[in-house]
Target: Fe2OG dioxygenase domain-containing protein
Amino acid sequence: MSKRPISSFFTKLPPVSKKPRLKTPPKEEEEEEEPQESTPPTTHPSYPHPISSLPPSLLTLLDTYTRPTPRSIIKTDLDLTFHQPFFPSSTAKSLYSFLRSTLPFYRVTYTIKRGGLETIVKTPRYTTVFGVDNHSYFSPADKNGKYDDIFLIDAKTKKAINKERYKSCTCRPRPIPQCLEILKNIVERESGETFNFVLVNYYADCGDSISYHSDDESFLGPNPTIASLSLGTTRDFLMKHKEDKSLTLKLPLSNGELIVMKGATQRKWLHSIPKRSSTITGGWTNGGRINITFRKGMEIACTGNYYRYNVGNGPVYRWDEGKAEMVICESEMKDGKDSSAVASGSGILRDAIKNEEEQERE
Model:
């Protein structure tokens, strides 16, 4: 999957020679006000609904921010870079509200076998995923913005892939939408790495969690690099060495912070976001947190695995601003418009700028 420059996502940006401004300067009385520029949503046959694109004003704030030098955390078998922050708090706040309102989420339930017994696992957080492994890439739309039945191309032969290749997926693989690909491009530029998957977790409150695990699957390669961006409520990120139990690490990850884990980290360390006894209330997140991880899938098995465990077979959830919670999206697309009562991403952005413990698969 080729890397797109940030500038390819819009036709015109506010000047960046100076610090970007959210409000335009006053105009002469006789001059008519120009309509605010917007970018069309990302659409694809594999999406349950169009996904709103980042407005140029927010995109500029994300792209032009001058980041402080990250600090390196080096321990035995651990290579971790900590960006504090990666995005400024106010911009990260707007990004959090935007992504929560526009992305489709899922509450996945799946079955695993351990010792001959089947166990039903209810994922204690909302998840979603976009991307495909490096054996394939997505077919572009035609000049009219339409897609034919061929939606994936073999990376070597440049021919349409056999539909059996991804039969293990619970849904069609989905290209990364503009709002997430922009973040991927920025993370790639700052880290020097490349990624082809974006996984998003939404922790609705402090009861949502992920238990100790490592991203050491063979389809990510022997020493995978995982970049993880935090938005919203500060949550503890715990790490422990797989063999030396005396080696531990606790990082409170706050709004706009990024960690990049490299080298032997995934092979030798476990990490988790544990449950907490109480949820922060009254703040702008009301205890919610979004975590975005960027990964590079090297094998076909990666695609099936990620869609099985992050999309599954259940219903689509969308953020309902009136109820202030995720709700099942009862209605699908009609005539290219989302007919549900769920608030749109752009509307939330305007406002922003103004059960059981999971058993990890083996």
Notes: The CA atoms of residues 115 and 362 lie 12 Å apart. Confidence is low (pLDDT under 50) at residues 11-31, 332-362. Helices lie at 56-64, 89-102, 178-191, 265-268, 300-310, 345-353. The two ends are 28 Å apart (CA to CA).
